[in-house]
Amino acid sequence: MLAFGEVFWPDSNTYQLESTIIYWSLTTWNQPRCVFVPQSAKSMGRGIWTARLCHIDFAIRGGGHMPNPGFAGTNTGILFGLTALNTLYFSNDQKSVFVGPGLKWGEVYTFLAPHGRYALGGRLQQVGVPGLLLGGGLNYFSNKYGFAMDNILSYECVLANGHVAIVTADNEYKDLFWALHGGSSNFCIVTKFQLKTHPIAKMWGGLGTFVGQPNCDIFYSAIANFTNSAYVDKGAGLVSLISFAPNLPDLGIHCAGHEGDIPDPPIFDEFNKITFHNDSKFGMMTDTAELPNILGGVIVGLRHNFRVQKCPRNFLRFILPQTRAKCPMDISCAVAIQGVPATLLERGASNGVGGNTFGINTTQNYFWYNINCNWADAADDPAIHNWVKEVAALTGNGGREFLYLNDAQGDQDCFAGYGPNELTRMREVRAKYDPRGANILRSRIGDQGETH
Q1: Model-level pTM?
Q2: In angstroms, rounded to a whole number, what is the distance separating the alpha carbons of residues 305 and 344?
């Protein structure tokens, strides 16, 4: 059974921390029967068996950044909080790093930076490790190194039967290794990741803000041209947003990063035509841990949601004014524009493990946008969720369009947009490793196309 010091009840401070405060969005605060904080993979295995024997539902929470209610929490069962699984150490040659799922990316970068090593992970320090890696993972240097998931060398996993397995591309679990590359948490619970590290000791980057339609027009064009020419300089990346709030002008946010010590990378020349605010700053970073802090603190204590869509490049000028015009007056909203060049997708297709689970065309560029809203009153939840869907529908995308899992709203059927062969293969892997349906993290790749 479970160890006494790993189980916490509603009258304890740890219960309150694990079930509420750790989560980024108030939409995900939950009231489980109890909280289980395993100290090891073996302890996690005992937790799975206990839940199954007692026929109790359970949910897993890593970093708690996903704002969809019920995706990393439960009001009826046991919450497994991964906080104590905070392993962080190098391999002997420092070419890889072992990372626990209880960590945030800021902690990982801070550990690596003094050694001149870098691992692909989140672009914000507050994002948790496991969800980003299992759903793909976009990084400033993904154009060169692929998704974060394409840089995973091994997983330590707890299977549905409680067994602890080391999963690699060339051992008996190679099918599971492939499925975990973008298949999310449908197959097992990962208790440790081994990530490839890259010798990146120096980094150029910064953040600029601006207002005004002329600047926005330059911004949209520069994003599109940057994405379409990413093969010219693969060591560069962006975070691009337009933010709007009641009674304030639209605010453009340009955050850029570049590998190495080039003081003013030419790939960003078009962005330099924007008239940035005086407090904008670009230059050489102190170390590789600095850039994830550039976007500032993530807003906490509010309600949040995501919704992701794919759009053509010429749609950017249309979708953002439409979004602004329909925006309810009591919320703040940001639209993140993510160019996904073929160079990034090609890295995933040639990662040595038969590609990843996405199954999308790797010869063309894509543009994804993510609507991220924040508001205070729970009574506004239905109206805001409906508004986000209405705005997203302006793209006209439907059917089996690929939707990026990590930025999706709860009702979006992301797996329906995966390649049909990949989806069939993932179902086979799930049936093999969870034949009796342990319901690990509520499987979402079922035959009826359950939503993400």
Answers
A1: 0.93
A2: 26
